[in-house]
Design brief:
three-stranded mixed beta sheet, three-stranded antiparallel beta sheet, 143 residues, GMP Synthetase, Chain A, domain 3, N-terminal domain of TfIIb, alpha+beta, globular
Amino acid sequence: MSVDAKYKTSATASGGGRDGKTALSDGTLDLQLVVPKELGGPGGDGANPEKLFALGYSACFLGAMRVAASQLKTKVPDGSTVAATIGIGPRSEGGFGITAALDVYLPGLDDADAQKLVEVTHGICPYSNAIKASVDVDFTIRH
């Protein structure tokens, strides 16, 4: 697979990884990372890779819906939202894996149009394409 990257960004993690810091190389964002209690850490304020993935996936999917809508000759309704829930845990095959669920709200679209828009978007969204071989994404479509 070949990708003609039109944009790139870079971040560096330091400290203990999940209990350290991460910062963008351009200085626009830096975050303290905290291991959640559910994974044996102290929890509390701070980010973690799953939170960052949820932020990125929800924004990316909503943006990709605009591309899909133009291909389908329709519009993404005003007030549409995408909420991403990302989980992490042990895999039956060993190691760890992630789970992903997207709650897509498309006010005013009928069932068939909403389903088609989400299906086409799932084929366009870079996050969806990055994980589709290893993560089943559960969708809830509301309208």
